[in-house]
Write a structure and sequence with these properties.
223 residues; alpha/beta; Rossmann fold; Arc Repressor Mutant, subunit A; 2 domains; 5-stranded parallel β-sheet; 4-stranded antiparallel β-sheet; 8 helices; globular; binds calcium ion
């Protein structure tokens, strides 16, 4: 899952990026509204964390411009404490949720998890596929109750496919959602990671759809 953080306060920006990266997301960042707007317009983010008080272009205008241009990614806005009018303006501009400053990082993480799974159509924090279970809260993956140890990239790959369970995801889409903008992307390496992941899981849920991409779906009934 790839996120964008638009926050001009350098300390807060860094704290958000660190916490989100530690939680297993790939994070791009912008420090003013114009740069943030450009990134959201040109890169495919799974969710955005958007401060409202931003230099150059304010957060509400950024959000309005995205929504006018049919950008549908979930957006969590950061508002000043006790400014109820900020929240109203933010929601009217197309925000999906908000956190008031100062906030606990755990709350931001929980709200991001909820936005990601709701936008993918999952109501609960656990996503299951046959014996495979992804707990988005603890970032744990189990097969038949046994924990599977994954590298951060393998986890991101599986989490993306699990959130889009039953859909075919192309290699290009995976590359766009697994790496940040500065990464030297090579879609051929995806095949290698899929192979390793499949071996670690040991269950037949991760399919290659020739010429199209990959799909996580329920294993075939052996009977
Ligand atoms: Ca600010």
């Amino acid at each position: 899952m790839r996120l964008l953080v638009v926050e001009d306060d350098p300390d807060l920006n860094r704290q958000l990026v660190t916490a989100l990266t530690d939680a297993g997301y790939v994070v791009d960042t912008a420090k003013d509204g114009e740069e943030g707007h450009y990134l959201g317009e040109t890169e495919p983010y799974d969710a955005v964390i958007l401060d409202l008080g931003l230099p150059v272009l304010d957060g509400v205008s950024v959000l309005e411009k995205w929504r006018r241009n049919d950008k549908k990614m979930p957006v969590l806005i950061l508002t000043a404490r006790d400014r109820w009018s900020d929240k109203v303006q933010g929601f009217d501009a197309g925000a999906d949720d908000y956190v008031a400053k100062p906030f606990h990082m755990e709350e931001v993480l929980a709200r991001v998890r909820a936005l990601l799974r709701r936008s993918a159509g999952h109501a609960s924090s656990e996503i299951a596929c046959g014996p495979l279970l992804l707990d988005t809260k603890s970032a744990r993956v189990t097969v038949d109750g046994n924990a599977i140890k994954l590298t951060s990239l393998e986890f991101r790959l599986l989490a993306y496919l699990m959130h889009h369970k039953g859909k075919v995801v192309s290699r290009t889409e995976l590359v766009e959602h697994l790496y940040d903008q500065d990464f030297d992307r090579d879609s051929n390496t995806i095949e290698v990671f899929v192979g390793r992941l499949r071996k670690k899981l040991g269950v037949d849920v991760l399919r290659t759809i020739r010429g199209m991409g990959y799909c996580v779906s329920e294993p075939d009934d052996a009977a």
